[in-house]
TrEMBL record:
Keywords: Hydrolase, Metal-binding, Signal
GO molecular function terms listed in the Swiss-Prot or TrEMBL record: agmatinase activity; metal ion binding
Record-linked SUPFAM superfamilies: Arginase/deacetylase
PANTHER family hit by this protein: AGMATINASE 1-RELATED (PTHR11358:SF30), ARGINASE/AGMATINASE (PTHR11358)
Name of the protein described by the UniProt record: Agmatinase
Secretion signal span: 1-20
Amino acid sequence: MYPSLSLTVYALTILNAACASPMLPSFMRLAVSDATIHSPDDTHATIHSFAINNAHPDNRQGTSDKDDFAIDSMFAVSESPDDSHATDSPDDTHATIHSFAAKANTHGKFDKDDLVSNPVAADSLYAGLGTFAHLPYVQCLQNTSLTYDIAFIGAPFDSGVSYRPGARFGPVAIREGSRRTLLTGGYNVPQKVDPFRSWAKVLDCGDIFMTSCSSSIAGTIPRLLTMGGDHTITLPILRALHAVYGPVSVIHFDSHLDSWSPAIVGVDPDDDSAMNHGMYFWHASKEGLINKGASIHAGIRNNLVDAHGYEEDQELGFRVVEAREIDDIGIRGVIERIRECVGDNYVYLSIDIDTLDPAFAPATGTPESGGWSSRELRTILRGLEGLNIVGADLVEVSPAYDTNAQITAFAAADLLFETLSLMVRQPVKQTA
């Protein structure tokens, strides 16, 4: 397992793109006051104080490095030191949830005090802290003594969108969509693994803020599943991973290539406006972050600027599987094309929710009809078993456009569940 200190470094470098492109932000922890929080009213007051202090740069000098309660409260998860439902550790909480779900699933006999002596079980199944699949929430950026293997982390950022905004609320929507993941247990039947009860210690680290630039260098890091946010977050993640693994093979599920040259919009590549969620792979390729010739887009179906769009994308190092090809080669053919492309290389998996047809995922910024179904994409992901995945993201969930049934949030949570299962089944292997 990896020390959480490494995640601190990773989070500080994960968006260091601003050093090359000032517009692209980097993640960075902001501090809040030393106030001890004893009640919900104190929580709300602390959040207000945090917002007020950070609205005025001169006030930030008095903030503390010790307390990040308000940060996660504003964007994702929260916990009170005096919570009457507290258990001895986050692992105890998750174990209780599993026990409760297992009894419900097997129609086992509940002890008469189950819902009284262990109120966290009932609360966590239906409400509780807003973490992915009720995973233990730990402030990973502060707890440098903690060890773990895989972490979920939210990136609430959408300043790089080109059409509909709202992806900054993606992490909270995905977490909400994952609440029922453990309702009947966490065993993934097709993948034959329970990723929540395995060799891997998995946590939810909450959300992280973004600032203009960080020049820190990433060290050895745990594997992260990042919940966006718009797709520009992938570029700084690739930059941080490059410091550890070198160029990685990218498996990019999307309806768009996301490899536009800045010249298409008539700007200089070094200009602030040369970065949005349709250009980041152009930058990644030019910076040597991807394994050229061994990276692939899958699910593509957008219009191109001209007839040479695929040629230019190929020059950047990508191959392409169009969404329509599934009609001819089938799901197995798509899987084989992807596996043949990336081989045994280190792999970064990036999933844009608009890979799915809008019938299955309407809540996204740039929807394109003619996409794959949620069943098809989940099956394709399962077919990537054994690949050397070093990290992943799921991006572009904009919950404001979802249905009342939250079908996009559910689909996103399920895709991350499949991805987590892949990562648990195959620890990272050293490559030559």
